[in-house]
Design a protein that fits this description.
Length: about 600
Amino acid sequence: MSLRKTWACRRQNSEKNWQRGTSMKKILQLLHRKIDGKSIRLIFTALFFLTVSLFTALIISLYSEYTKAQITAFLQEKNTQQLRRMSFSIEEDVDDTIELANTAYYQIIKSADLQALLTEQTLSDFCQLHENKILYAAIYDIDGALLWQNAENYDTESVDSAAWFQAAETEIDTVAFDVPHYIQTAAGFQKAMTVSRYLELRDGGKSRSGILRFDVCMDNMEAELNIYPASQTDYFYLMDNEEHLICYPFEKRLKSGVRTEWTLHTPKNQVVLQDKKEWLLQQQTIGYTGWKLISAASLTEELQNNTQLRTGIAVIVLLMAVVSVILDFLIQRLMIAPVLRLSETMKRFGHGELQVRAKAESCGEIRGLSDGFNDMAEKTNQLMERVRKEEREKQITERKLLQSQINPHFLYNTLDSIIWMIQSKKYEGAGKMVSMLAKFFRISLSQGKDIITLKKELEHAVSYLSIQNVRFQDKFTFTVDWDEKLADCLCPKLVIQPMLENAVYHGMEGMYEDGEIQLKIYAVNELVHIDVIDNGEGMTEAQVQKMMQGDVVSSKRGSGIGVKNVNDRIKLYFGEAYGVQIISAPDEGTTARIYFPMRRQEDEIEK
């Protein structure tokens, strides 16, 4: 029986092999009939296309799995770097807030008697100095009674049961952070976070416990999370230890009930499945506060986008293979190489190698292209050189024109004041004023130079303020605070004086011996900042825009060139990224800020 089965199996295998051989023979015969009499070029093209297609399909299949692993690793590394960068910035913001609270306590509150603290303006001035950060400040006793606040009728609710109050009362040596909330300010509703710390107050020689409260602006923290644009499939958010959201890109949708954040209670630092999609969730802890910075990225979305890219690449590869084979047989190789060399030459020319030229070779049409390109390159060089020369001349002319717009009314008024002093037999004051005027114009001339050092420009500004102070009979006081390390930094001359002129004539209007003008020069991130600050009545946003647009009328009270003149000159010298910024609000004074990059060599500015 076993022998018969063996022979039967062999016969079946033989029949199958014969059938396979017959099928293969039929296929070959069919192919032979199809290709009989056909061009070998067509046959090669078909075989080449078939081979490339099969090989491409195999490569894509293998590459898909490899790409998935690579994309996952890349996405994880990218999000990790972004989390570290944002967490570092957030920690810096937290440290700044802690330092702000500790500074207020140790340098102002702790060293002062409570009654003196409540009556003096030291703490209010501190809050005013940091008004961009501190939206509201208050001091409570340990029972929750309000002792002091920097804004009237701000907070009348009982605070002793508030979480921030109890946290500060319990954790004496730390600064406590509460959940965010919105408060009404002069600028409208702003997002703020209550920061509190425990106080030891001196009240008439007795020790008394209290709580310091700061409502700090969260704009900086929100800006850090907005560095990387959020989408529905890739976003970051910040939460505290109790999973309360601190910064969240979809806050409006969350509050309206349109959206829920499913990742709050989901394990982090792993790939999770949600609604048939894979998500990569990562977490970074913020020091001191213990907050959690979360990254949520849809791995499925990334893979889908990449699949589309791979499909496009595959189609391009197949099309390029067919085109390459056809062109390889239709176009002579002697035509391809010169075209490629000409194309490479054009690319080099387009990337800035303006002296490169194409070699005249190959057939007439390509030779004609090479000659035409060489003629075009030569003419382009000549045209660019002429444009550069005209641009340099134009900039020089514009600088001279802007600088020449300084109004002579200042000179006339000063001379009138000198004549009045002489007639009033105030010879000493007249002599001092003439000396300051001479120094003012000596620096203004600057031996014909358009660029002078900050030290010279500061001397010029101080001379101007001194003259105006004498003219207006000490109507205002002025202070100068500058970093002497910037003395040799270069700047266009006569940029501070127009700012001071606006402060004197417009900022000091209505002031009677209580006007203050501050001139500050300092460096921030390789930028020179020049601030002219007055405590005048300030301006509205519309007035600021009007000043920036140069919509002013020249009169005996000012030069008329003002902010726009200086702004235009700074941009001409340093570029559109620099210039003048006006910070003002009604009844809050005005700050005119000039900012430009540090330059210590004149040739750098000319370039």
